[in-house]
Design brief:
By secondary structure, this protein is of the alpha/beta class. Helices cover 34% and strands 18% of the residues.
């Protein structure tokens, strides 16, 4: 399973973001996430118990500036500075401050690069988190299912989570965000059932994100019963949205 031992890592090539410099603002010794997704490339939460600390703003400043300054001096391209890492980045108590630090360093070294955050959108009810996500170039917000039952099957959220509340938070972006959905095949549910797909499409229509990213399994998953969807299958899932003018990116 994938695990990140540094605050700043890469850059690596991303299917969705190009040359991406990763930022992990979660404990390096384990995984911290309020989701336990059946497809998570970092594995089950129980396998990565962490006693480590969250890096603070100054920790991130030092690690990120070292990477950015070296990439700039070596002529290495960076298209995106991407918050991902060992879990959900918005759980870091200094998330808002770290976003400000990242934007400052981006402007100094790679002003053309995008700052992206891959988030499960579970903390949008926190005003400081929501405002920080609004400030970045690419708030990439996950919604893998259109109702709480299916979210529980796919993501196993802990604590406060409800699709209706998450959607209310997403609406505050005024469409200036990227909606990300994982499509996969499981013996326990059918994401491609017509009524399930139509509910998901209706959510897209209601939220009107500037871009929709749909993707499928790319690495080993903790649940071994899963299989990936084909690009052709995902094209069929999103065809009505594309015909309505939505910008949809498919990563198969």
């Amino acid at each position: 399973m994938l695990h990140f031992d540094e605050i700043a890592f890469g850059p690596i090539y991303s299917r969705r973001l190009g040359s991406s410099l990763g930022v992990n603002i979660l404990p390096r010794e384990g995984k911290v996430c309020n989701f336990d997704c059946i497809y998570c490339e970092c594995g089950w939460n129980r396998d990565w118990r962490s006693g480590g600390h969250f890096p603070g703003g100054e920790d991130v400043r030092q690690a990120l500036e070292a990477k950015l300054s070296k990439a700039a001096s070596d002529g290495i391209a960076i298209d995106s500075i991407t918050f991902s890492g060992n879990g959900e980045p918005t759980l870091n108590p200094e998330f808002a401050r770290i976003v400000d630090v990242t934007l400052e360093l981006r402007d100094k070294y790679f002003p053309e690069a995008q700052v992206s955050v891959l988030s499960n959108a579970s903390m949008l009810w926190k005003e400081d988190v929501l405002q920080a996500l609004i400030r970045v170039d690419n708030p990439i917000l996950k919604l893998d299912a259109s109702d709480d039952w299916l979210v529980k099957k796919i993501n196993s959220p802990a604590g406060r989570y409800g699709t209706d509340e998450v959607m209310e938070g997403m609406k505050r972006f005024g469409g200036n965000f990227v909606l990300q959905t994982m499509f996969l095949k499981s013996p326990d549910f059918d994401q491609a059932a017509p009524e399930v797909l139509e509910r998901w499409r209706d959510i897209v229509r209601e939220l009107k994100p500037r871009k929709v990213m749909v993707y499928t399994i790319d690495r080993e998953t903790p649940d071994k019963s899963l299989s990936k969807c084909t690009a052709c299958e995902m094209e069929a899932y999103v065809k009505p949205l594309v015909e309505e003018g939505f910008d949809v990116q498919i990563s198969g």
